Fold:
Amino acid sequence: MALSICRRLRDPLAEFSQLCNFANDVLNLPWGLLKKFVASERLKECLYEEFMTRVNEVGVDLNFAVEHYHYQSMVQFVCGLGPRKGDALLKLLKQNNENLESRTALVTNFKLGSRVFLNCAGFIRINHARDDSLNTENVQLLDSTRIHPETYIWATKMAIDALEYDDDEEDTNIKQRAIEETMEDPEKLRDLDLDAFAIELERQEYPDKRITLYDIRDELTNRYADKRVPYHALTDEERFYLLSNETPETFKEGIITLCKVIAIARRKPKGDEPDIQRRGMRRMECGN
Structure:
């Protein structure tokens, strides 16, 4: 119990994800007084959807997961993997007794299918700072970011342009040095004209990539930054809509709806306030 509490303080997402198992232990947590009004299947669906969103926002370090059992439950929420493929990948990493040195090694060394790789690669982190045993020759700094391998070439181009280096496609050292320097001093990226870059990509028959380019610059500026919005307590109106599965558009003034009167609460009028509730009860008793 003490160990679980410590893990929860350090990484609550990893600790709570362990409850997402075949026994559905996550449903046994006290999610609030209104939990009994929500169907179990609906609650499970919403919880798993939230776990998936948050896990993919922070990424999963597979090397760390292999070494620490309590962290492995997060792998099931990686988009493109899921419980079955995620468990199989962890077993393969353990059997081979080797670290995952790059994202591309998922395909070359661990025979991950190309489609699965494209779906999950952006959410798998290779934390070079945490693991000193990784081969420095195979280090790809972009593997420690949210940037997808498909767009590494654009991220590298942005770093080279920001530093005004010569774009030599054959010199990988220049590319790696440019990425490293821009990560250390990301302010240099602010002068880039990403709109012009997007137009150039459109000329090369790419679709509009403006949003992608701005996301790449944000990630180079602050790797795996916490993008969660600040928490705010739900209002009574928000609770009502969540429990009733209604929206302000489907439940508003003027809408005819069915209801069941469970009880009538009468409040004593104050001062000269008319006793409207008593008159309303009289009308109900006489059927008018």
About this structure: The longest helix spans residues 40-58. The chain is about 45% helix and 0% strand.
